[in-house]
Amino acid sequence: MWRLLCILALVISSEARPKKYAGIPLQKPVSPRASTDNRLNKTLVKPSNYALDLKVTKDNLDKGEFSGAVTITLNVLKDTDSFVIHAKALNISTVTLTGNNYAGTVTAEDADANDFVTITGSKNITKGDNYILKIDYTGVLSDTDMDGFYRSSYKDADGNTKYLATTQFEQTGARRAFPCFDEPSFKATFDITITYPDTSTALSNTEPKKTRSDAENGLVTVAFKTTPKMSTYLIAFIVSEFECTDIKKADDGTPTSVCGRPGTKETLSNALKAGIEALNTMKTFTNIAYGALGNKKMTQAAIPDFATGAMENWGLATYRETDLIWDKDQSSNYYQEVVYTAVAHELAHQWFGDYVTIDSWSDLFLKEGFATYFEYHSAAQVHKDWQLEKQFVLEQVQTILVTDSRKDSEALSYNTSDLGEIESRYNDVSYSKGSAVLKMLQSFLGLKNFKKGLNKYLTDHAQNVATPDELWSSFEDFKPKDVPDKLTVVMDNWTKKAGYPLLSLTQNEANITVTQQRFLLSDDDSDYTKWYVPITYTTSADPSKFTETTTKQWLTPDTNVTIVLDKKDNWIILNNQQVGYYRVNYDKTLLAKIKDALNSDGQGKIDEISRSQLVDDQLNFARAGKAEYADVLKFLEFMKNDNSYYTWYSAFEGFSYLLKRTNDDKIRTPLKKYVKDLMESLLVSVPFTTENPKAQIYTLKQVLALTWACNLGEENCVNNATAAFTSYTTDDKIPSRNLKSIVYCTGLKNSKNSTNDYDFLYNKYLSTDLATEQVTILEALGCINNSTIRQEYLKVALTDKVRIHNVDFVFKSVYSNNEKEGVNDMLQFIQNNYQDFEKHFGTQSTLTSLISKVGDWITNQDQIDTLNEFLKTYGLDASIKEAVKTAVASATTNLKEISTLEGKLKDYFGPTSGASINTYHLVNLALIGVVYLFFNFF
Ligand SMILES: [Zn+2]
């Protein structure tokens, strides 16, 4: 599954109710479920095949319902009187059990809190193959939660609403479409048959085998070919009037196509190309062709309503429209990259997840780590100029290093049986740390050995399940001699412990000692975890070594490392290309040498990823109290001459934190001035008026730099953006596809006619059906410089004008773009409209999740008081109260963090810090003046 946002995270009760056992007592009673948790019992009953027969008529689509019959072939492994299967929100009408001379009847209890339906026999169900369990039932196609078998819609060319029925089963949605053994390790084959209106088509995991028409009733029935042995969460089906691109074949002959709403065919060609490329690259990488996995076709489909980003259903991957539909004239380069990387992610899952599956959701990283790794490293094989391997370092490694330095961070493998906890595994740790650790493994094994190990892993566990230890063992025969222990030992703490090491370097003449300790943002030294750490480094003697990622020395849990420098070495920098999952702290002497080099011509030939790593590490050391902000901000002054996208990306991440966690204008104003001054040469390198969309990194850098410049009120940027916005409102001159996000937001922030400008852009939103454009506008409308209009805009989120999966863009655009006022607006909106959330979304979870997000943006006591006032509201539901209390607690922590941070920043920016700094402050006040009153940051 591809992240983004899961707005409607389901609140699933984890309460396990006591079970009643009916029927004839057995000599040796066997629990129908596993004894220690709420998982199915693997030693009792296993399915081998499902024949699933679904019916969705036109009337069903209109009413949001469906009917089905499932026939499950079972293998009973032990004598029992009952067993359990999963079902949720299904109305079961009949249940029969036949085969293996079974002569009794069976009954089904209603589903319990674990979605367990207990099937109890009137006679003993004895050990044996080929039992046939048949269940008839009906179910609902939900409109609101985009989970299970659900209904999505769009408007056709004539403005009529068209409904479609589609699926999202990961992790536990299959049980809402058919009764089943809904855990990944219960693999079986599936024969799916769907009856649907003859104006529609039906898609599923495999190719159609047989189609039958019932003209009298306007229905068609299609039987799909038997699937490979697979998990329930990877089943998919869609009944729609979608159109598909022509079929193209991958290198191994696999036919692929992409489908979406009528009218989107042209804009799906990018995804078709990405799909072919991903299948071909994965074949080369793993030495196993897609077709050899067991499925003979690959379809990708863009779904108008989609809870996450995308889903890797075997042979029928589904996506949110922004992740698959790309318009070459209107969508930005960024979204083109999103399509390629999302497709690379989902198609990598066909090998890692679909073919070889995780044994339990506890090891989610085993599939999401791989998919995230390939998201970059597969697309990188074809689009070399996108430098995706370098982007991987910024977007995955550096991001997760921050999350994973919290005391409460979780390990990659985390024992999960509870349904609520399963949801919580879909976090950055599983995806980003999973991929970062795999990247480190790839680097110390070497790419060739890594590929050999992957092939062995896939071959040994073909169409089966695997555990992390089985993965590490697959590489054992291919590891280089220098790896200090068995891979299961080397990888153990990377997998089973939270956090990562901080490597500290101390120089004593030519000797440099490297020690390790867990890095935590909080001032806490109580975690003694140590890791096996592969070390790479480059010295000033040969800067060409920055591209070499072969391990030079191993740091082990028991021993420190000594690096002996050559006489001609001046500086040393660890962790080439940041392939190791750790931070590096240099002692004062070593850091001073690096600083000198960075300030010399061409940044002393220090590689841009190393520069980016230094920036990221230094800013986080200051945050953790391991360095002084005054020193770090001085260190960053080399960036006045550094125009690398990578260095700046890391710096902006750090500056975002500083601006989010400061409140006092006496700090914020000079801080913004500091950033703006630092950006001078960067902005010269990417002028507003010079676009080059063929150059990907230039374009990404331009958008990043100008977004910051305009937000900081940099005059040139603001003038250019507002002029472009005015050209749009007066002459309908559409802004360029890459800069439009900046033009929209800056135009609204600096608007002199707020109502007209807001209405203009809002109407553009209503008139487009291109998802990337809709989201770009939704993200900008909250920038409007008028609080009353912002309240009106927030109300739009609670109407059918905004798809449920997009409401977060509306909220975030208000609370993150307008400093304190945006947060105030959001708190006021919640107070005035909280009752409408459940009416509109059918659940409180959108509201509770919003309260928690806003809590993170709170910067002052007044805002906390507002939340406390809200808490006193009569009749507030318990879940909302709980969310508000949690938000108050996190906001109170923010205030402490703000106070500490502002105290530290005063050393550099405060009034007593020296003349030059005071000048910063005064000049800034004079320059920004009135513009600042309207200027709203983040
Ligand atoms: Zn995924």
TrEMBL record:
What membrane topology does the annotation report for this chain? Lipid-anchor; GPI-anchor
Q: Where is the Aminopeptidase N-like N-terminal domain?
A: 46-234
Keyword set includes Transferase: no
Cellular component, GO annotation: cytoplasm; extracellular space; plasma membrane; side of membrane
Q: For this UniProt record, give its keywords in alphabetical order, as a comma-separated list.
A: Aminopeptidase, Cell membrane, Glycoprotein, GPI-anchor, Hydrolase, Lipoprotein, Membrane, Metal-binding, Metalloprotease, Protease, Signal, Transmembrane, Transmembrane helix, Zinc
Q: What sequence ranges are listed for the domain ERAP1-like C-terminal? A: 571-886
Q: Has UniProt tagged this entry with the keyword RNA-binding? A: no
Superkingdom, natural source:
Eukaryota
Q: How is the cofactor bound?
A: Binds 1 zinc ion per subunit.
Where does the entry annotate site (Transition state stabilizer)? Answer: 431
- List the catalytic residues: 346 (proton acceptor)
Subcellular location per UniProt equals: Cell membrane
* Record CDD domains: M1_APN-Q_like
Q: Which Pfam families match?
A: ERAP1_C, Peptidase_M1, Peptidase_M1_N
- The signal peptide here is 1-16
User: What GO biological process terms does the UniProt entry carry, in alphabetical order?
Assistant: peptide catabolic process; proteolysis
Recorded GO molecular functions are:
metalloaminopeptidase activity; peptide binding; zinc ion binding
Record EC number: 3.4.11.-
Similarity-based family: Belongs to the peptidase M1 family.
| PANTHER family assigned | AMINOPEPTIDASE, PROTEASE M1 ZINC METALLOPROTEASE
> Would you tell me the protein name for this molecule?
Aminopeptidase
User: From which source organism is this entry?
Assistant: Zophobas morio
